[in-house]
Amino acid sequence: MCGIVGYAGRRDALPILLDGLKRLEYRGYDSAGVAIIGSGLQVVKDKGFIANLEAQLPPLKGSTGFAHTRWATHGAPSKVNAHPHVDCTGKIALAHNGIIENHASLREKLEARGHTFTSQTDTESLVHLIESYYDGDLEAAIRKALHDVRGSYAILAVHADEPGKVIGARNESPLVVGIGPDENFLASDVPALLRYTDRVVYVMDKEMVVITPKGVTLKDLEGNAVRREPQRITWSLEDAEKGGFEHFMLKEIHEAPQAIHQTLLGRLANLDLDGFSSEGITSVKLVACGTSYHAALVGKYVFEEIARIPASAELASEYRYSQAPSERPLVILISQSGETADTLGAAREARRRGCKALGITNILGSSLTREVDKTIYTRAGIEIGVAATKTFIAQLVALYLVALKMGQDRGTLGYDELDRLKDQLRSLPRAAQYVLNKAQEIEALAAKYGTARDMFYIGRHVNYPVAMEGALKIKEISYIHAEAYAAGELKHGPLALLTSSTPVVAVAVQDPTYEKMRSNIGEVSARGSPVLAIGTEGDKELPKFVDDVIEIPSIPWIFSPVPVSVALQLFAYAAARLRDCPIDKPRNLAKSVTVE
Ligand code: F6R
């Protein structure tokens, strides 16, 4: 996730671009850069925050240009990898948000034809590709180049010989046009535009747009004109940064389908996981903290089920105290931030013990990536809410991918089975969306249950850690005391605490433990506790045993943690909102925990 802003008008572009860019800094801040056409193409960029770029900018003159703030996905956060990227002639500049999947093969071809690359980014292949098609018409060159590209993009480009024109295009990454009198704008998101205009046109997938001071032209990738009426935006600036959602957490929960999609992008066909190989691995230990630990616990069940490999999960803060076994498992360290001190310590300990270490993180170039042998990135986009939501979902997806890879390499999955599982993974964004569409229903249930002082969450097998994650979410943002139990454990003690004022959230989807879950729900109801179940659509029996049901779609049970988690996140959010809690910044917590 990166932020881009473009301008073509009569005023000096630089202050407008910087102001717009600052409003998009929530989309990433690994590096920033600007390209302005004045007397030729002028490009300035650097690593770090926008303020760092601003402090060193000469007074660039010109009224056409664009700016970019980066959230790194390919190539470490550095000055050379910062956008804009420039072609060999020094006349075309390009900024990009998204991932060019076939960048490696494009690069190979372009280098063979004599193009010189200066960065490690996927984006640079596109600017050279555009250069190779350029014949005096930037729009035509971009159109041709985009036909050769696979992946997601929102791009902005300018050519020194075509002043007064910024060209944009979009596929699976956002791009919006702002319309003003004698000036027009482009941006990843509305907040960058609101100071200048409230009239916008959303660019859709596989569309291109040309802005000049005089007008806006929208076309499809074949060059056919597209007509779309501008809309009027009525949000305040602050609302706009949250995309119209009341809190970042809610926005991020709603970004789950996109996070799943991005994490899968380009990886499913060949199970190419950033070069990870499972050769020689005979067992797995997953190590993490907090929400990431819950992903690790889900991973344990997933690895055992899909790859038939012995797996265990351990808290990072405890791992170093365990005895080093003689066998050396692959240690998978999971951390959204890649900066959690306990997880970094565990990574060092794993390698001290002679184990291979694989990191799973959302942040490119984070400390974890330097402590492990290989890293697989979840590509959920920046997460601002302190409570992890979409990044947890992306971690689950990354773990499914690793399990598939291991199943393939170990020969525990046949071709048909592998293809079937891949197809099911592809359908997960839809499964998440199915639950998101129930947000209002879930809000009503939160109003019914969210006044409790104490709650219990129960689940079995792969949905036991999902229940733990549900309980953690409600604890941290709504301050309701919640305990999670493996459903079979209630009768060994906790049942003593159940009364009519302790609601129980039971994950009872149709999986191999379903019948047992029904019995456990019976034990709970017999103590008078109200039960809210998460069940599978079309299950006619479950509603007879519980007070309320939130349905997830009918998908293979091994993947059910994804939609169930989305439901529990929405439930926790709605409860916290009703209790008027500071949802994005819960008390005593921080997004990245860098102390042990
Ligand atoms: C809870 C939450 C925390 C983190 C934990 C580990 O919503 O976000 O429990 O999961 O602090 O953080 P990372 O994943 O950055 O290592």
Topology (SSEs and partners):
Blueprint: E1 3-8, H1 13-22, E2 31-38, E3 40-47, H2 50-56, E4 64-70, E5 85-86, E6 92-100, H3 103-112, H4 123-133, H5 138-147, E7 151-159, E8 166-171, E9 176-180, E10 183-187, E11 199-202, E12 207-211, E13 216-220, E14 231-232, H6 237-241, H7 248-254, H8 256-264, E15 284-288, H9 290-307, E16 311-315, H10 316-319, E17 330-335, H11 341-352, E18 357-361, H12 367-371, E19 374-377, H13 390-410, H14 415-426, H15 428-436, H16 439-449, E20 454-459, H17 464-478, E21 481-486, E22 504-507, H18 514-526, E23 531-536, H19 542-545, E24 548-552, H20 561-578
Parallel strand pairs: 15-16, 15-17, 17-18, 18-19, 20-21, 20-22, 22-23, 23-24
Antiparallel strand pairs: 1-4, 1-10, 2-3, 2-4, 5-6, 6-7, 7-8, 8-12, 9-10, 9-11, 11-14, 12-13
Helix pairs in contact: 3-4, 4-5, 8-13, 8-15, 9-13, 9-17, 13-14, 13-20, 15-20, 16-20, 17-20
This protein binds fructose -6-phosphate (F6R).
Fructose -6-phosphate (F6R) binds at residues 289-292, 335-337, 340, 343, 387-388, 472, 476, 592-593.
Summarize the structure.
The protein is of the alpha/beta class. 35% of the residues lie in helices and 22% in strands. The strands form four sheets. Strands 3-2-4-1-10-9-11-14 form an eight-stranded antiparallel sheet, covered by helices on one side.
